[in-house]
Write a structure and sequence with these properties.
- This protein is mainly α.
- The chain folds into three domains: about 170 residues, no CATH class; about 130 residues, no CATH class; about 70 residues, no CATH class.
- The relative contact order is 0.07.
Amino acid sequence: MNEYIHKNYKKAARIQTIVCGFLFSIFSFIYLYVFQSDVLEALHFSLAHGKTHFAPLPSAVIITLILVLLRWGVNSLLGLKGEVRALAYFPSCLILGVLTDVGRTIYMSDYHTPWGWLLPAVLLVYFLLAFWLRRVFRVQLNTESTPTALMNSNLVILLLLIFMTVLIGNSNRTFHRELKAEHYLRNHQYNEVLKVGKNSVEASRTLTVLRTIAMSHTGTLGEKLFEYPQYYKTDGLFFANDSSTVLRYTNDSIYYLLGVRPYNGENRMEFLRNICYKGTGKSTSLDYYLSALLLEKRLDAFAQAIVDFCEPDEDFARYYKEAMLIYRDRHPDYPIQITDSVMIQRYAEYKVRRKDFTSAIEERNKMRREFGETYWWYFDYQH
């Protein structure tokens, strides 16, 4: 009878080992390839200084394989048994979390992380503690428990370790979106950049600028700019001066796109105006200047720029036409007319709809749902 129980226990132990190994492998691969691919690519770029190409699929497979082998090595060294055998996954889960604990300063030359000393320290404590506990609970470890208790205990330990990994890794949604948009931009996949976080009302300054660059490359600034939240006015066209917030791209890439760099201390609006009126910038500079005027709600200067740089019968971009409808509503003698009957009708509906509300908060929210992608909403409601 005891021999039969022993065989069942050994069989259950093998099944438990296979199940835990399978679950960990699936988690590690999905975590690296699906959820942390952008973070892993950023770490690779920083370590390799951009000299080698990052391959997400092979990287996820290789790292997972190494971590599984590490678990076997740890268990061979510690000899963990029974209901605590899954504790051998602790180093693998810890290293997996550390690999993805990447912050915004990853590209800075003086980048450092406390994990440089903390990881060896934690692993040392883990091994010392495991050796000590194995000696203290030697009898308990050699006791054969029921197959159900064996499986449940190890699965709970593994799930807790997986939870630890997720807590350690960078799960900041804004940071991930910025990395993903930057990745697509570096690979000239401009339409993919514009899909990142498209349905979210959240938008960091860095993501806003990355979207602007992508639109500029595709010549769609005037068509798509206000399809996305614009919280930063003209600042949303340029990166912040703090290098720890802008990832790999800086304002140098924008100046290259415009064809000119500003003078020291030159105001950005004046910079854009000068390169347009002096003709020193590339063709992209006009869209940047017109977009800046719209973002700052300077319709007088915008209307004048349209007259100065565009033909009266030109087929204007969507948001330029929407802005001109506002301006013509206030200046009926403006020489450039908008003939888009559908847009004119919708603007009339917009003005009528604004009168239906008594609460300013209700008006702003409901108008956003109905007209949030128009320049009219931005002009009247975005502060």
